[in-house]
Amino acid sequence: PGIMLMIWFTFAFIALAAHSHVSRVTRMDIMEGGINQWLMKPINYYLQNMCREIGYKIISIFLTLTVTLIVYVAAPEYIRVPESPLTVVYFLLFLIPAFIISHLTEFFIGITSFWLGENSAASNIKHMINTVMNGELAPLHFFPTFLRTIAIALPFQYLGYVPAQIFLENITGLNIGKHALFALVWIGILG
């Protein structure tokens, strides 16, 4: 039970630290006309939303670390700390491209409100695909070959599976660099 709880904590931390929720804000700005005020200002709407999300993430990370520390003190057998402190650094650094990819995909879903009006269906479809393809539902190495190939080709693995595998020390060394490079490629494609 300890490893399963550790995997759950890892994914919960990644979700709180790296998953953006900007599609809801963007949808409401478009549907209620609030986007007009932002388009009239010399402020980049996308970056403004990113800064708002980063502020939210700082608070989320602080609260998550507090709860994790309490659990670690109360039941240390359920929280596994990586052997190498460098692993924690790699993990935390990998949350940056994970957040950017999440923010880009969420922003894209948000701006579909220009054409769709209500985009909750698109948001729900993206959420379902993300949950399956980022390894949150089940680790990607349990997927059948054809589904794993699709999951590896999409950017969603960088929103959960890869950061979790880095933290659990299943991805190390040059493989971290390889995944970081591919995550940057996805940022370029989505951006």
List keywords for this structure.
single chain, 191 residues, mainly alpha, globular
Helices and strands, with pairings:
Layout: H1 2-18, H2 22-32, H3 35-39, H4 45-74, H5 85-111, H6 113-116, H7 120-133, H8 145-153, H9 161-167, H10 174-190
Helix pairs in contact: 1-4, 1-9, 2-5, 5-9, 5-10
Descriptive overview:
The protein is mainly α and 191 residues long. Helices cover 74% and strands 0% of the residues. It has helices at 2-18, 22-32, 35-39, 45-74, 85-111, 113-116, 120-133, 145-153, 161-167, 174-190. Helix 2 (22-32) runs parallel beside helix 5 (85-111) and helix 5 (85-111) packs parallel to helix 10. The chain is globular. The mean pLDDT is 89.
Can you describe this structure in just a few lines?
The chain is an all-alpha fold and 191 residues long. It has helices at 2-18, 22-32, 35-39, 45-74, 85-111, 113-116, 120-133, 145-153, 161-167, 174-190.
